[in-house]
Design goal:
With about 160 residues, this protein is mainly beta. It contains three helices and nine strands. It has a six-stranded antiparallel beta sheet with strand order 6-3-8-2-1-9. The chain has a three-stranded antiparallel beta sheet with strand order 5-4-7, with no helix packed on it. It is globular and about 50 Å long. The protein starts with 18 loop residues before the first helix and ends in a 10-residue tail after the last helix.
Length: about 160
């Protein structure tokens, strides 16, 4: 897994709503980090949660397996496979597994929230790395469009 800006090529993740997510038992695994977004797979164990938190980035969570409760800015919503929840930047949120099986989801952060190489086996491991500043988004994933264009990372021709 690269720690630098992505190549200009397709990233393909087959079976994201069925087999692929259920094969990962990691609490958090970054699948891909781009200049303006990041895809992360999460598995919340039975009785577990992601933690009551607020990010400075937007987040969209798509649930692929299990059932849970989403709390966003004080409003509760039951969630299940096939549901999508959007959490705007600066909004308190918490997701709790309320079912008998793992709650599995993939989330898209915009811009990135985690180090592109992040793999956390457990929530506790993730919390510790975040508290110690070891799970920070790469500087290149937080640059403006103008900065990326000037650096040649983005051009409107689409040719590289």
């Amino acid at each position: 897994m690269s720690s630098g800006p992505p190549e200009h090529e397709m990233q393909y993740f087959p079976n994201m709503t069925t087999a692929m997510p259920s094969e990962s038992a990691d609490f958090r695994r970054v699948l891909w980090t781009g200049l303006y977004s990041q895809v992360v797979l999460m598995t919340v164990p039975v009785g577990g949660d992601i933690g009551d938190e607020v990010h400075t980035v937007d987040q969209a969570l798509t649930f692929t397996s299990g059932v849970g409760k989403a709390t966003v800015n004080g409003k509760d919503q039951d969630v299940k496979a096939g549901d999508l929840v959007v959490v705007p930047a600066g909004t308190q949120h918490q997701f709790v597994n309320t079912g008998p099986t793992p709650l599995i989801l993939y989330t898209i952060y915009s811009p990135a929230e985690h180090d592109p190489r992040t793999v956390h086996k457990t929530k506790e491991e993730g919390d510790e790395e975040e508290e110690n500043g070891k799970d920070e988004a790469a500087d290149w994933s937080r640059k403006s469009k103008a900065e990326n264009e000037k650096a040649g990372l983005v051009n409107t021709s689409g040719k590289y």
